[in-house]
Amino acid sequence: xxxxxxxxxxxxxxxxxxxxxxxxxxxxxxWSQLDIPNLVxxxxxxxxxxxxxxxxxxxxxxxxxxxxxxQPDNRSRSWFATIREQRRRVERLLxxxxxxxxxxxxxxxxxxxxxxxxxxxxxxxxxxxFPSKCPYSLDQILNNHxxxxxxxxxxxxx
Length: 158
Hints:
elongated, mainly alpha, Conserved domain protein, putative, DUF29, 158 residues
């Protein structure tokens, strides 16, 4: 059912213009003029972006938790702030898109692989130093009072 308006911006030539035209057509309920195949593609891509953002945030968070645990002498306010920020962003993302919850195990697994790369790249430690599977539970990962390998008050780094 692809019947595009000949005067509307082409998807490939002016993406922003195309989005604005499609939004206008939707608002006006001009269903027959919508570019359905490209709309479907873009909506699916938005969902993939949410999943990718969750993986990316978990990767950064887990990488910093690993650095925190395995390089205690290098702990800093910067690492602390990154851990807190990524926890907040993961929580917000899950609140904004609760249907991502079932995807969490896969996102954790994929994010942990990125975390290992980050931890090895940003430390002098080898891959063998770190567990091959994520050593933290979801509760530990998202809990603002849990910092692996440390018993302290978070205010110490605030």
